[in-house]
Design a protein that fits this description.
This protein is α+β, with helices and mostly antiparallel strands. 29% of the residues lie in helices and 26% in strands. Strands 22, 23, 25, 28 and 29 form a five-stranded mixed beta sheet that branches. Helix 2 packs across helix 5 and helix 5 packs antiparallel against helix 9.
Length: 535
């Protein structure tokens, strides 16, 4: 399948003493079966391995002009999501996962690993994730012998499903592969999809099989020619014509003359080399020559010639049969190992182990999981983001650290969960002596470490009221009492304010006017407060 000296193009070796193949005449899509990875100047190649049986089925489909689809298959097994494979072209992506099963409570077993890693590297990634507090494990055992067998023991109270998702999110139990099928075709590098590579390989197999048939046909014809020539030479006792010859030239001439009446029975001319070969027949062979057996041999050669000529005329059908025989002979034990499926990307923030605590230094404006002497806010992980609001109406989202500056005079700091947006309500004074505004908003997409202004941005701006709610109903239900600073001719210094009157807008909106007067304080209205009666 991989090498045939008769169809190989040879070139002199470096010293000219031997010959070496230019390329091997491979009658199989070996490149796609084994895969390859390498780099060159300005080029990179990554062809992933594919399944032996599926490649044969796809090659047969090409010869029959039928549709086919190819996706990789890895010797390490595992689970694969090939929805973005893109036929192995640049820009495609493949996600592969280890096969992890829950054996019993508190124990996970890894029996297959992703392509591109080893059991040693996989275990190191699990230990590293545990050391960083991203996953919780008790210990890990490697019982791998002929087959992969890694045991992950969980601590008491740990959820197996959550831990399995965390292994996919933070370790080499899930890897992303980026194919890039770059091959040399038509004498130059080209980016071809695996389907096109297979089509070209299949055509090459067909051409090579045709070449082999032509070579075989020539060999059979040559064998038939000499067998027929030998039969004529012996049965007609032409060898006796050379008994009186004294020179080599006379021998050649005598045999040629003796063959003359029979030349029309042959399919090609008799050459001097043919006559020389006749002179090399030993007396023992002549004496034991069996004419019946010779006729049978010639008929067998004629039958083989007819079959070979038929195969050449029906080369497509012959190639399909060749592939089917290859599959029949070698398919056992080469079944698909990697399960093809689809799975969602694991949200790392949902499965990471909350092993740290967020602390806030309200006085100096710092937050982090290393400030253990300050106020504890909530449990967190080392990959979380935090969101902070300050007294002057600024907001910032930043990566959590042991200690990080969040701004002067923080009024609210918590873990930022963008998939669970909250409803924020604020009342702020615009500038040092400006009007008072109220707004409700949600925090959508943000850029980390960028400072956002939730007010109109005037110097001296100050947030007078701040609240956070999980749903819009609770946000709208806020009833407040705004106490104004006493002024001349100002009769009513306590006014109710209902947030239901404020629509939810973007965080950059200015808000609704509450009052132009100076505000002394804002308090929540009691549960039995009647806005028609007043404070």
């Amino acid at each position: 399948v991989v090498f045939n000296p008769k169809t190989t193009d040879w070139t002199p070796s470096y010293d000219g003493r031997n010959k070496e193949p230019i390329t091997l005449p491979v009658k199989f899509p070996l490149l796609l079966a084994q895969g390859v990875e390498g780099i060159a100047v300005g080029l990179a190649c990554k062809v992933l391995p594919h399944n032996f049986i599926e490649l044969i089925d796809a090659s047969i489909a090409v010869l029959r002009n039928e549709p086919f689809t190819l996706v990789p298959d890895f010797p390490t097994g595992g689970i694969m999501d090939a929805s973005e494979y893109r036929d192995g072209l640049r820009g495609g992506r493949l996600r592969v996962r280890a096969r992890i099963s829950s054996e019993k409570k508190g124990l996970l077993r890894i029996t297959e690993i992703p392509f591109g890693t080893t059991t040693g590297n996989l275990m190191e990634s699990i230990v590293a994730a545990a050391d960083k507090g991203k996953i919780k494990i008790q210990k890990i055992e490697d019982n791998t012998a002929e087959h992969v067998d890694i045991l992950v023991h969980l601590p008491a109270g740990a959820d197996a499903e959550t831990t399995r998702d965390a292994l996919y999110a933070f370790t080499d139990c899930e890897l992303s592969l980026s194919p890039n099928a770059c091959v040399i075709a038509d004498g130059k590098p080209q980016f071809l999809g695996v389907s096109e590579i297979l089509r070209r390989n299949t055509q090459q197999t067909k051409d090579l099989l045709g070449l082999e048939l032509q070579i075989k046909l020539g060999e059979l014809a040559e064998k038939w020619h000499f067998s027929s020539l030998e039969k004529i030479f012996i049965e007609n006792r032409i060898y006796r014509d050379i008994e009186e010859c004294e020179t080599w030239e006379a021998v050649i001439a005598a045999i040629d003359k003796g063959l003359e009446p029979f030349k029309k029975l042959l399919k090609r001319e008799v050459t001097q080399d043919d006559i020389v070969r006749l002179t090399e027949i030993k007396i023992k062979r002549i004496s034991k020559y069996d004419s019946f057996k010779a006729d049978e041999e010639i008929r067998g050669l004629e039958k083989e010639i007819d079959i070979t000529e038929k195969n050449l005329k029906q080369l497509n059908k012959y190639t399909i049969k060749w592939f089917e025989e290859l599959k029949k002979k070698y398919a056992a034990g080469r079944e698909r190992r990697t399960e093809v499926g689809s799975f969602d990307r694991v949200d790392r923030t949902q499965v990471v182990a909350a092993t740290e605590t967020l602390y806030v230094d309200w006085k100096n404006g710092f937050a982090g999981y290393g400030l253990k002497k300050d106020e504890a806010v909530e449990k967190c992980s080392t990959i979380d983001d935090i969101i902070a609001f300050t007294q002057d109406g600024k907001m910032k989202v930043m990566k959590i650290a042991e200690k990080g500056f969040i701004g002067h005079k923080p009024i609210h700091v918590t873990v930022f969960r963008k998939d669970d947006p909250l409803f924020y309500s604020i009342i702020y004074r615009d500038g040092k002596d400006g009007a008072v505004y109220a707004k409700r908003f949600q925090v959508g997409g943000v850029t980390r470490d960028k400072e956002y202004d939730l007010t109109k941005g005037k110097a001296g701006t100050r947030i007078l009221y701040f609240a956070v709610h999980k749903n819009e109903t609770d946000s709208a239900a806020q009833m407040l009492i705004v106490h104004l600073k006493p002024q001349l001719r100002l009769r009513n210094v306590s006014r109710p304010f209902h947030f239901a009157e404020v629509a939810i807008k973007g965080r950059a909106s200015g808000g609704n006017l509450v009052t132009k007067h100076a505000v002394e304080k804002i308090v929540r209205a009691p549960k039995d407060f009647d806005p028609e009666v007043g404070a």
